[in-house]
Amino acid sequence: MKPDLLLIEPMMASIEARLDEAFQVHRLYQAQDKAGFVAAIAPVIRAVVTGGGSGISRETVDLLPQLGIIAINGIGTDAVDLDHARSRGIRVTTTPDVLTDDVADMAIGLMITSLRQIATGDRFVRAGKWLGGKLPLARRVSGKRLGIIGLGRIGRAVARRAEAFGMSIAYTDLRAFDDVPYRFEPTPQALAAASDVLLIAAAGGPQSRGLVNEAVLNALGPDGTLVNIARGSVVDEPALVAALAEGRLGGAGLDVFADEPRVPEVLWRMDNVVLQPHRASATVETRFAMGELVLANLAAYFAGREPPTAVV
């Protein structure tokens, strides 16, 4: 008999087809009454597949007495209580490495789009405004000072790309690293003060909530640009909106937000802000590779082997 699996959010059709081959899949995202749906199947669920942003609440985990593995289709673990999973003996896996390049590419894309005002130029031409004049000058990307908050896999991948633009690179993290040539700054505020572009690549969760606050944004200043491809929770979003509206921050490229998919409407109307709907890893190639790793983790667990990318 196939093990019962709770699928929190949709995946690529080809990946879901393979899940159906190996599991009795219960699709929460299709249910109208989600609480009732979970309650009806709770006693038999042995695996959960979810996204990094969606996760699964502690309360839902406690409804599933047979749950043995939570396979996250992503690298974020802030929406899963890892300590609680550990106490229950539940394995938790993620999909590291396979999405690093796409997320780093998006970071560079947001940086270029923000500084060179590419999206603004696109809107300008489409609205027929070029007939009446020209846009103000944009800002150069090459040679800028890039500050990276969080020098993990993605932060390092962005740094390597930024080197090709002749950017000077500095970073802050929980500690300095001996294996990189980049300058370490002890705090986000000190890093922001020494940067033209501040990139957030830090993990989400309570430890980083509101890390980029008003003081950091003020230090980045009216000529600075903030790029966030990490988690919306890392930024004090009301402080960010105020800094942009008041001209204390020059611009922003944002792929993530505090309360997705609800984005502050004031940001919609700001020409100095580039917005994306949390899709840094959303390419066909990467989503397929992520799905393959989810399948590999599930297969290993149910075969009694160590899941290849377990975090718990």
UniProtKB/TrEMBL annotation:
Domain D-isomer specific 2-hydroxyacid dehydrogenase NAD-binding per the UniProt entry, residue ranges: 108-280
CDD domains the record matches: HPPR
Single GO molecular function: NAD binding
Keyword Calcium on entry: no
Domain D-isomer specific 2-hydroxyacid dehydrogenase catalytic residue range list: 9-311
Family: Belongs to the D-isomer specific 2-hydroxyacid dehydrogenase family.
Protein's name in the database: 2-hydroxyacid dehydrogenase
